[in-house]
Amino acid sequence: MTGDRKFFVGGNWKMNGTKAEIAVIAKFMKTGPLSPNTEVVVGCPQCYLGYSREHLPANVGVAAQNCYKAAKGAFTGEVSPGMIKDLGCEWVILGHSERRNVFGESDQLISEKIGFALSEGLKVIPCFGEQLAERESGRTKEVVFAQLSAMKPNITDWSKVVLAYEPVWAIGTGLTASPAQAQEVHAQLRQWLRDNVSEEVANSTRIIYGGSVTAGTCKELASQPDIDGFLVGGASLKPEFVAIINAQQ
Ligand code: 13P
């Protein structure tokens, strides 16, 4: 990473964790030590948001992994941004590849969710990335630009947004993108911000990488100029998460 952007490491526990397991995670995060130069946020299952907020160190932000685009009402099974805030949490992950590909969420719905979450005062980690067939057919740039373009009309405050580029083929597969592969897309994304939003937003917005990041791969990825941190799945449940948080030291 280069420039003034604060290094950002998010954990995404996905549908994992019990109270007992979360207590263990809270313990290794308390022990750390966590670099003060990294902003840390963990994405917890909705039912454990309150418990996680109570048990994790105060300098670790807590994110929901989804929310709906309305404040309340007849939306069985959904959670609103206001409920997330009511539990003391400030962040939400939206548009994760599993929301898109397992639950069929569209670019349009994700964009509307981002807009509503921001308007309700949450900070947002929008996720996006290409599938393997799209990469292999040379369409990566076209796909990620289309995903960003769909979000843009609803991103009213870029200072409250951390973009997470997660190539779908790298998620949960052990196939981390090489530092050069990830850097190439991150540089294109920053150029997209420059061309479509502003120079200032391009320079200040954190663009983090997700997809099989481990303690072993994080340092070289973190040394790339346009990689401003990570969104970590499996490894965020393990003590090696501390090493990933400290990748930049
Ligand atoms: P893994 O780190 O388990 O590949 O998951 C990445 C991810 O989807 C984070 O949101």
UniProtKB/TrEMBL annotation:
Source domain of life: Eukaryota
**Gene Ontology MF terms in the entry:** IgE binding; triose-phosphate isomerase activity
Q: Which EC number(s) does the record attach to this protein? A: 5.3.1.1
* Tagged with keyword Glycosyltransferase: no
Please name the SUPFAM superfamilies in this protein's record: Triosephosphate isomerase (TIM)
Q: How does it assemble?
A: Homodimer.
**Would you tell me the protein name for this molecule?**
Triosephosphate isomerase
